[in-house]
TrEMBL record:
The keyword Signal applies. Keywords: Signal. One of its GO terms (biological process) is electron transport chain. It comes from the Bacteria. This is Cytochrome c. SUPFAM superfamilies: Cytochromes (SSF47175). GO terms for molecular function: electron transfer activity; heme binding; iron ion binding.
Amino acid sequence: MKKALPFCGRQLATIAFPALALGLASCQNAPTQNGSTAATDKTAPITTNAPSTGTAAMTPRRELMLHVMQRNADQLWNWTAYSASRSGSGYASPKTDEDWMNAESDALTIVELTKLLDTDEYRIDDADWPKLVANLRAAVQESATAAENKNFEGMLAVSDKIDEQCVACHMHYVPGIEVRPK
Ligand code: HEC
């Protein structure tokens, strides 16, 4: 991932993601490298796509999966988790505007992670890799769009499909990690 603002890039790569929305907000308020556009229009996205000059080491793929992908997927799945207890039962579901915002952020974070998976740093050199990545991306994008539209049924409908894409890729390259007690 090429980032003109190394601080933002580092945040995206290493910090747990409830901070993402905040992180992006602070990125947008940060001055651009040539100090121009952001000052005039604070809402304008920073579109600079100059090659990164950052030299920070990338997190190894397994660590990225374990600490960033899994954590973030769990957060996303928590929104569609079903629970039953004496006091009642039902889906967690985003409720407040902030919840919906966070749910969309959780999904969009995984969309961005799939782009990382397509970089030389993380990809496995195999023709099926980009397809498996794209399948996950499509599923989480669907969830992000549903969250943006406050469409819980949409989020619920795609929730298992997201998991299936994780499993499909793992079964292809690292089947051992999917052998867990059911
Ligand atoms: C395109 C392929 C691909 C997709 C999609 C994918 N993974 Fe992975 N995952 C891998 C590979 C390859 C590894 C092994 C990493 C390594 O050792 O380099 C891995 C490892 C992991 C691990 C570490 C398990 C362990 O015990 O070592 C976790 C956790 C994980 N993935 C979670 C997920 C989740 C959750 C998703 C879906 C939201 C997902 N992955 C989607 C390819 C993928």
